[in-house]
Design a protein that fits this description.
The protein is of the alpha/beta class. Helix content is 30%, strand content 25%. The chain is globular, with a radius of gyration of 22 Å. Residues 10-198 form the CobQ/CobB/MinD/ParA nucleotide binding domain.
Length: 450
Amino acid sequence: MSAHLSLPRVVVAAPASGHGKTTVATGLLAALRRRGLTVSPHKVGPDYIDPGYHALAAGRPGRNLDPFLVGADRIAPLLRHGASVPTPADIAVVEGVMGLHDGAVGRRDYASTAHVARLIEAPVLLVLDTTAQGRSAAALTLGMAAFDPAVRIGGVILNRVGSPRHETLLRDALAEVGVPVLGAVTRAAEVAAPARHLGLVPVAERAPESVAIVTALAELVEATVDLDAVLDLARTAPPLTAPAWDPVAAVGGPADVERPRVALAGGPAFTFSYAETAELLTAAGAEVVTVDPLRDPALPTGTRAVVIGGGFPEAYAQTLAGNTALRAELADFDGPVVAECAGLLYLGRSLDGLPMCGRLDLTARMTDRLTLGYREAVAVTDSPVARAGEPVRGHEFHRTTTDPGHGDAPAWRWNDAEHGFVAGRVHASYLHTHWAGHPEAARRLVEACR
């Protein structure tokens, strides 16, 4: 697919975290869908939780656009891919990360919302928390726009407006700087979702409540945002010229293995998985099936490899411990196993004193310290997903620690320290990776099923 694609699109951004980007982006997705539009949801950065709400609102997978993890040259192709499957989208809504111009530490605005907006040539809809702010909101907006003239702020959503008089003051001030106000949300009307660590509680953990929240957000946006104006703004984006990302091309076609079955952990305890992971495994020739370690007493029949991603297993440690049959099967499973973060904890001997699979000789516990950030890692040990010496980019996001912190054969090295475990055909660490950035991992895992 190389022809130009006309895809209306808009980036929902803010001057800083906490202004209400997720409220507006999720509400927009749901409200546009209720209008009968097919909406493609996207999130800047590595976050797994917001895309879950986006998926619920849009009715199709929420996808991440992270230049640090996958490379800047893949961002527009991944957007086009996400907006094309399973069906072509009428519009794409991209939720930003942190403040508009906040990039990876020490890299100026690389991997920032502004960087992604430039890469996909999309106008920005700026969400402003107007609490205790009047005309200064216009100065802030003007500064955000002038800081990088290549980023076009096409409109503002006023959030947490105190009164009709407050709204009038804000609208008048923004009219002075020529930025249209496309919506205003009062403090009383704002819809809240429960937070955990640095974001919302994952959708899968509270499905009925999540549906109610998304419905409320749709109604909120319908009542407070000029949807026609947002659509008009999105239509000002030029056609996408980059070809769509193709998972088959990325992995070089199916591996020479007879369609092995790969079990991908899911369910409320293991919600962190990028949509492209399953697509790449399928493209490499695997049959991808789901296993829920909370409920399933066994791996799916014929499973040849297992991928256990991230999540919040500490919230479900008692139930995970109680599924003794699956724990025992994973302890003895002789196929390749790849585990990230939550998967690492699950494969250990115990989590907060409760028994886990015992596949790895480690204990894990919750701490008060949040470990968070991008990592530039190098593989230390050959494994089913990496070769020693191979560089990879990833991110950490956890409040747990393991004892020991790495095995005799570590998985990775970053910041002059070794991390993770390679034990036989098991590769496990805290590092979250996006396989679109190193698709050879999917092919190697499938080849390791021989």
